[in-house]
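How a chain folds remains the central question behind the approach discussed here. No coordinates are needed to read the tokens, only the vocabulary itself. For completeness, the protein is quoted in full, as a sequence line and a line of structure tokens:
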Amino acid sequence: MNDHPYRPTVRSQADLETVWRHLMRPLGFAEGSIWMMHLEPDGRAVPSLMEIADAELDAAGPEDFATLLAELESADPGGSYCFLRSRPGRGGVLPEDRDRATFLYAAGRAAGVRLEVVHLATDTDVVPLPLDEVGLPRSA
């Protein structure tokens, strides 16, 4: 047994997709969630992962979520934040997946934090949801 936490280094979107594939296996989800991971300024993952149920995110709203991100950033400045939406089901990207990604990108911009490419995990695959996939410009 390995007593050391999984601490990958993320230097590219491909690295991040590999990390999400590792962390989300085996694929298959009962409910929708958002998973959040923090990367240190050197790209090493902080060895903790936060899961936020879709219902909790809906209750918080984008302003409250942006405030949370800003507070997290002030407590541990630098680095970036990574998000993955998981949901049950097969198939490609759905409109609600794009809506979730848009919510996350907007909250990150409002909080002034650096976000990596948002990803989606379904029962069959993990795929990126870059800004142009959700219809947002690359810069504010």
Remarks:
- Residues 13-132 form a domain with the Cytidine Deaminase; domain 2 fold (CATH 3.40.140.10).
- The two ends are 46 Å apart (CA to CA).
- The CA atoms of residues 120 and 127 lie 5 Å apart.
- The chain has one domain: 13-132.
